[in-house]
């Protein structure tokens, strides 16, 4: 089922500071502009690597789901891993049939790449918050 | 400096259980055999994806550095992110010059892919334990 590792989600208290880290310290050469995803309560910024991406996420709004993560990890840290799947609804149905807890009542949302995504609770995923996204038709 | 996202390191109390998860629940189709890296104190097993890998790591021996991680995260979780660099010593020198804390006194070790690696302390990397590895001459 899972295909490419599309991105690693990294939570940060400050996308600006993280961009400095990836650009000036680690020497990443392709970093997008930050943008807001209001419904998800996050600012998002992609660090583009030749084969994958780091998705920097910073809380947006007081009820952002990333706030609890940052309370436990004030400097930030690895938040989720995202794998591509061919069909999000087929993937969701398969996971639910196998007993995995799909968040948001199993309802796909449109993610930062403009394609539908679901999240699977870390308790069923070896402590890893797993995002599945439908393979985008064009890669950045 | 950083090139491809070579792998995401995922700590687990049981590689066998994690293999079941990635194979039977997430449907990964290419998973290697587990092997021990005595000096690093870990069992290792790679889940191969089309563009990258998940590196499952389980403690080996009583002094394994992964034990402390699992005490905090008993189900396991994301442990590190590994980026490829062209030359590990040049990367190390560059990071040290920029003030980053390179573990093991800055001395590269041979990693699970048979090429030299270094680890950078998460305190300088936005809470993420960053591994840098010299690009392998052949990818799996």
UniProtKB/TrEMBL annotation, chains A, B:
This is Methylmalonyl-CoA epimerase. GO terms for molecular function: metal ion binding; methylmalonyl-CoA epimerase activity. Pfam families: Glyoxalase_4. Residues 4-135 form the VOC domain. Belongs to the methylmalonyl-CoA epimerase family. The keyword Mitochondrion does not apply. It comes from Phenylobacterium soli. One of its GO terms (biological process) is L-methylmalonyl-CoA metabolic process. Its EC number is 5.1.99.1. Keywords: Isomerase, Metal-binding. It is an enzyme of class 5 (isomerase).
